[in-house]
Amino acid sequence: MALLGRALLILGLVVCLYGIGASVYGATTGRREWVASGRRAVYALAGLMTIAFVILEAAFLRNDFSFNVVAGHSSTTTPTFYKMAAAWSSQEGSLLLWVFLLSMWSSLILFLTRNRVREIAPYATAVLLAFAAFFTSLMVFPFAANPFTTSAHPPLEGAGLDPLLLHRTMMIHPPMLYSGYTLLTVPFAFAIGALITGRLNSEWIGVTRRFALAAWLFLGIGILLGARWSYTELGWGGYWAWDAVENAALMPWLACTAFIHSIMIQEKRGMLKVWNVSLILASGTLAILGTFLVRSGVLDSIHAFGASTLGVPFVALIATMVIGGVGLVVWRRASLRSDAQLDSLLSREAVFLFQNLVLVAMVFVIFWVTFFPLISEAVTGTKVSVGPPAFRPFIVPLALILVFLSGVGPIIAWRRVTLANLRRNFIFPSAVGLLTLVVLLVSTDAVARPFALMMFAFGAFVLAAVAQELWRGTSARRALTGDSPPLAFVALIRRNRRRYGGYIAHAGLALMLIGVAASSSFAHSSDVILSPGQQATVGGYTMRYVRPTERATFTSQGEVAKLSFGAVLDVSKHGRHVTTLTTTRGFFPATADPTVGPISVAFNGQADSSVGLRAGLTQDLWTVVNLNFQPIQSEINRGDGVFTKLMLSLTPAQVRQPATLGAIRVERARAIAGLAARFVNHPWPVNFRLIVSPLVTWLWLGAIVIATGGLIALLPIPALARRRSLEGVRRSPVGAPPIAVGERAAMHESA
Amino acid sequence: MEFLILLAIIFAVAFIVTGPLRRARAEAGVGPQLPGSRHDGGPSGDEPAPGSLKGDFERASALAELEAAREAKYREIRDTQLDFDTGKLSPEDFEALDAGLRSEALQILEQIDELRPPGQPARSEDGSRERE
Question: For chain A, how far is it from start to end, CA to CA, in angstroms?
């Protein structure tokens, strides 16, 4: 089946190239059958990539180690769920996932637009297929990453999945991110088509808006899952480290956030055409850049760029996107002139504009600081290390402005407002924000963290603004229909999904950033060394190391699969028991290292952590254990000597006897288990990181609220409700004089 | 076995992808390709009556843009109404804005009427659920 898989990749590449040619030919000659044929090439590509992906998944599930990628990233002992997800833990599998997802979204958008945007669609098809051709060629050509390469002498057992990836969150994280990246190529492609054809009104935005919103949603979920994994798995106690890989996903998400706001202005007023087209081109480019950063390893060192086979092709693609995009925008600048001007700085348009500038500034800061080490190394030869302190001076003030604007936007009208109306709409949210500020100043030490204090006040302002809008909208709906408050509330959101989905997302943003401000500014953290029975105090809590734990698991062949060493801690406050935390550190055998001794192999491999976590609405209690094996190292070394001597003493005939090797294996496992048990029987001091962190849960809750708002805004109105809403426009929701489409007299009267 | 499967897939791909071309060749006696004609390999929209190829295409594109603008204007009218209902606009501002928006909507409707051939009903954007 590997041969079939390789053939499908080649066939897929051929189909891409054909589709590009057919679409462009059809567009330039007006021959629609060629345009349709190009569209069908996308459908065919989707079918081919589906079959290829199924072949790869089947190879993982049946432990076919003749596939190099299966041998390198799975094993017979890997749980089924992780076997399925292991496909995209590898470079090769992730490239196939990229093309698979791209072909799916491309097929969907082209099916939905098969009778619309007829001039733009063929060029968009060509661009989408060009992306697919690029990623497929990375798998096809010899220098790259083919998921269907095989070995003539497959191993009996695979290397297994990286232990850090044995986490459900981490397995869903890549498909979410890749869905986001590939969805972003859709509005990107249609923007290119719009620029080429000069059809630069809002129609191309209308057909791709939901794809941009879906990209934003998936990218956001992927980023959140990565943060959650970092918090619960990596063992450092944080959820965001401004790591290059994290930033690679954050940048396109921020740019896409700006885009989904500013397109509203273009749809309503015909303004910001250059801005919108540039934003989506930047978002698409950043999505490719993000894929490049993760896959090429270039940010570890610029020398990895040359060592990676993917570096040059990716840079060529990104350069083409940037130069081509800029060139098209400059070429079409006359057609991109705004149809209208900003009526007033006191308007929602102005707020959106400021918000866009803030978001783009954040992207710029993150881009510059992320790439600065690379640029520095290229220019000076010296690698500079940057971490979170390099980002905070810029990101924190920008985030404050962003939160404030996310509260202003919902309570200010389109086009213009009077000062009197502005005052009326600002009173309640401002009062709540000020009250929050005063209460915190009086009752806490928040004054020591002014930025956090401001974030709490602005967050309260946003929540109050959104609550005010929901209240007023529900009241207006009740006045119109007489519905009960719950029914009116649901109907309000159902009939105005974009607006109120957005408001809910803003509320989620406020919750999330309140959680970030609190947890990053007011956390108490302590690294201590404890023996059983000893205790430490952190953040007002007493954490006592009750007892050690140990567990050894074995394969069906009697080999050690994993050694887990842990601790049970009792947490109390003011003498009262609060909770019991359990944390472990797991060690996987270093089977790939031939220099490691037969006993040391069980203690020197990759490690993962299981944190002890008690999450609450007001604070999290978090702990992780770390240990070394120095106290038993002499016994480990002795064991290495004994078993190495034993193996060397075997005759060739004995080595060929499975029973002999089996007996040695059992004895070795027994020895390892015995040594591991020393941790419980004769425990030694171990390191603990203890953290008491306020409002971390608000971060996760806020993210869920953001996603909920995004989902509400994404969902289409069913046909029946669409007809009703059009009737609503004709009749006007609160009984104003009707305007019937086609009733010219009524329209003239109203005008 | 793999070879046979591959052959079948290649054949299927070729059949699917060349479908529109084969259909166009079979209907070659119909005459010049028209926008939205059955030669595009899929269900067609209600495109205008025969005219010059370029002119029909331009008219269809302009019509599509105007219909998108119309939908956007309806949304703007509803949004303005909702802004007024939720107290973000004074009655004076609302009346001025609402009148202006309705006037703009009327202009768009008149432009659509000019472009649309007589007797052709109004068409929603096919496949679109975008009505907010």
Answer: 69
- Residues of chain A with pLDDT > 70: what percent? 93
Give me the residue label for tokens 């499967």: B5
Among A257, A258, A179, which Cα is nearest to A218's? Answer: A179
Of A4, A35, A424, the CB nearest to B87: A424
> Rounded CA gap, A186 and A205, in Å?
11
Left, alpha or beta for A660 (phi > 0: left; psi -120 to 50: alpha)?
A: alpha
Given the cut 0.85, state whether the ipTM is greater than it.
Answer: no
Classify B37 as helix, strand or coil: coil
State how far Cα A293 lies from the chain centre: 14
Least confident of A204-213, A572-581, B46-55: B46-55
Q: Which two tokens stand for residue A285?
A: 């480019």
Taking only the tens place, the pLDDT of each residue in A76-118 is 878 888 888 888 888 889 899 999 999 999 999 999 998 888 8
d(CA A523, CA A392): 17
Q: Please state the pTM of the whole predicted model.
A: 0.88
Alpha helices in A656-695 (DSSP H): 658-681
3-state SS assignment for residue A23 = helix
Helix B53-85 vs helix A203-233: crossing angle, to nearest 10: 60
Q: Do A113 and B40 touch (CB under 8 A)?
A: no
Furthest CA-CA distance within chain B = 77
Are residues A33 and B41 in contact, defined by beta-carbon separation less than 8 angstroms?
A: yes
> What average pLDDT score do residues A124-146 get?
89
Q: Enumerate the H helices of chain B as residue ranges.
A: 2-17, 19-26, 53-85, 91-115
Interchain proximity B57–A11, CB inside 8 Å? no
> How many other CB atoms sit within 10 Å of the CB of residue A524?
15
Q: In 3D, which of A419, A736, A683 has the Cα closest to residue A566?
A: A683
Burial letters for A128-163: b for 16+ Cβ neighbours within 10 Å, e otherwise?
bbbbbbbbbbbbbeeebbbbbbbeeebeebbbbbeb
CA atoms within 13 A on the CB side of A134: 23
What H or E segment, with its residue span, contains residue A694? strand A686-694
Nearest chain B residue to A422, by CA? B88
Whole-number Cα distances in Å, A323 to A250, A318, A592: 23, 9, 45
Number of alpha carbons in the 13 Å side-chain half-sphere of residue A255: 31
Between CA A428 and CA A433 the distance in angstroms is 9
**DSSP character string of A401-425:** HHHHHHHHGGGS-SS---HHHHHHH
> Which residues of chain B lie closer than 8 angstroms to A6, CB-CB?
none
Phi, psi of A741, deg, nearest 5: -60, 130
Residues of A in contact with B32 (CB under 8 A): none
Which one of A729, A731, A748 would you mutate to disrupt binding with B, by most B Cβ within 10 Å of its Cβ?
A729
Phi, psi of A585 (to 5 degrees): -125, 120
Nearest-Cα residue of chain B relative to residue A741: B109
Enumerate the residues of chain B whose CB falls inside 8 A of the CB of residue A725: 78, 131-132
Give the pair of three-digit tokens for residue A331.
Answer: 């070429």
d(CA A536, CA A526): 9
Please give the structure tokens belonging to residue A85. 């997800």
Q: Which residue of A has its CA nearest to B83?
A: A413
